[in-house]
């Protein structure tokens, strides 16, 4: 688009690619807390999802039609705002309806679908672009978004009826009758409890105070900070590779969009296959071990990824040897990624469920999950912003290999942090008889 449709010089491609990805991350960073705040006021999470998907469609169409760079950036901003909403509300909806003992596997399965989209984008559209032209490539995301909007229209949202009852019960301090006229399980044991303050007098102040206390409690917890650091590093790593891979492969091997898209396929397909089993493994043996192993294993793979095409490694510079090393490293990297990807969201879900058990009033399930996944989206957006800025500047300044060295050092630091503060073992199940 930059070179052929908008007629920019090829020397500016990497700079504009970095700017577009960094803009996407920055807007997501700003949008996520706002999305969570607005979604808290909506009893159903179906409507925010529909609005977000409509925004994604409009932003994507605006980018496809863009006749100038400024309109391209405007479409990217709209995409990012809407994308932040789909992530926050979608993952909150998932976490609200999954038991803690299945959170890891459920998130892993969800990340498999996310990865399928990441694979489908560059792989299929890259092939369509080279084989059939510009609009054939853009038809893919537009059709997928239309199908997604239709799916949201027919989606049955569990728990909406209960949330209103629970909310009324908590606000009034009284029992809420069930459909058969009897009291619910939440009926107070003492009927002469003192009356609560009216919502007009203290409701807004109390709600604001609870929200401040929520974020204070969460951000003072080392496990939460470690989870957010994991989200930032994974996002930085993936966005950084996505940012530099096309230009590097064109320079190193002379590849065009079809072969470049196949490299994204090699990176992400193992992710699809192994995300579910990785989530199952975390549910069985805990988060710490698999995550630390994943970060450490990625260090040599990133270094191998940067060697082909670099003058310091002539043994990896031949056409056949260089391509073999690069592709093998990329597949291995994709196989290790599921061990670290999604860990932040799972750890945050664990922490929230633990804190809900200690203080149900402060950590109300539905709203708490909206807030926690807005924090996850903020972390993801920070990585989406700094990843391209870091890798783009290193790529242009010192080359692709030293860029991978910087990423490897970051993985080492994250391995140390994960070993220190991630959960060691899965939380044991509580027998029903003891509850």
From TrEMBL:
Subcellular location: Membrane
Membrane-related topology note: Multi-pass membrane protein
Biased composition (Polar residues): 165-178
SUPFAM superfamilies in alphabetical order: MFS general substrate transporter
Nucleotidyltransferase listed as a keyword: no
Annotated InterPro entries: MFS, MFS_dom, MFS_trans_sf, MFS_Vesicular_Transporter, Tet-R_TetA/multi-R_MdtG-like
MF (Gene Ontology): transmembrane transporter activity
Residue stretches making up the Major facilitator superfamily (MFS) profile domain: 1-423
Residues annotated as transmembrane: 20-38, 50-71, 77-95, 107-129, 135-155, 224-241, 253-273, 285-305, 325-351, 400-422
CC per GO annotation: membrane
Region (Disordered): 165-206
Keywords, comma-separated and alphabetical: Membrane, Transmembrane, Transmembrane helix, Transport
Domain of life, per lineage: Eukaryota
Main localization category: membrane
Alphabetical list of PROSITE patterns matching this protein: MFS (PS50850)
Family statement drawn from the similarity comment of this UniProt entry: Belongs to the major facilitator superfamily. Vesicular transporter family.
PANTHER family (alphabetical): GH10249P (PTHR23506), MAJOR FACILITATOR SUPERFAMILY (MFS) PROFILE DOMAIN-CONTAINING PROTEIN-RELATED (PTHR23506:SF35)
Protein name per UniProt: Major facilitator superfamily (MFS) profile domain-containing protein
């Amino acid at each position: 688009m930059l070179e052929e449709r908008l007629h920019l010089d090829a020397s500016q491609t990497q700079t504009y690619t970095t700017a577009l990805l960094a803009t996407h991350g920055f807007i997501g960073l700003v949008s996520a807390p706002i999305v969570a705040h607005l979604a808290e006021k909506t009893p159903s999470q179906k409507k925010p999802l529909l609005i977000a998907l409509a925004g994604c469609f409009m932003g994507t169409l605006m980018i496809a039609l863009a006749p100038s760079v400024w309109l391209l950036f405007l479409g990217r901003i709209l995409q990012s705002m809407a994308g932040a909403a789909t992530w926050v509300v979608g993952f909150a909806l998932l976490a609200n309806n999954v038991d803690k003992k299945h959170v890891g596997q459920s998130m892993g399965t969800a990340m498999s679908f996310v990865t399928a989209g990441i694979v489908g984008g560059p792989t299929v559209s890259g092939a369509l672009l080279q084989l059939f032209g510009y609009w054939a490539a853009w038809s893919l995301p537009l059709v997928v978004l239309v199908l997604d909007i239709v799916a949201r229209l027919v989606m049955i949202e569990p728990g909406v009826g209960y949330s209103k009852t629970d909310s009324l019960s908590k606000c009034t301090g009284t029992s809420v009758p069930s459909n058969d006229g009897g009291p619910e399980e939440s009926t107070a044991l003492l009927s002469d409890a003192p009356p609560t303050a009216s919502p007009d007098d203290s409701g807004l102040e109390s709600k604001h105070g609870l929200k401040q206390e929520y974020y204070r409690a969460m951000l003072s917890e080392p496990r939460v900070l470690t989870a957010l650091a994991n989200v930032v590093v994974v996002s930085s790593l993936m966005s950084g590779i996505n940012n530099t891979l096309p230009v590097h492969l064109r320079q190193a091997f002379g590849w065009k969009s079809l072969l470049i898209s196949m490299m994204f396929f090699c990176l992400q397909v193992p992710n699809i296959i192994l995300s579910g089993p990785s989530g199952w493994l975390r549910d069985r043996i805990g988060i710490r071990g698999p995550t630390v192993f994943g970060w450490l294993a990625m260090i040599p793979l990133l270094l191998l990824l940067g060697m082909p095409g670099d003058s310091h490694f002539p043994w990896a510079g031949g056409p056949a040897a260089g391509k073999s090393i690069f592709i093998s490293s990329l597949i291995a990297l994709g196989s290790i990624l599921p061990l670290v990807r999604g860990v932040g969201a799972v750890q945050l879900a664990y922490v929230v469920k633990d804190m809900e058990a200690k203080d149900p009033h402060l950590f109300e399930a539905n709203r708490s999950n909206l807030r926690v996944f807005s924090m996850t989206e903020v972390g993801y957006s920070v990585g989406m912003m700094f990843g391209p800025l870091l890798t783009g500047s290193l790529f242009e300044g010192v080359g692709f290999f030293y860029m991978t060295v910087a990423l490897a050092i970051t993985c080492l630091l994250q391995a140390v942090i994960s070993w220190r503060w991630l959960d060691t073992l899965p939380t044991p199940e509580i027998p029903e008889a003891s509850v």
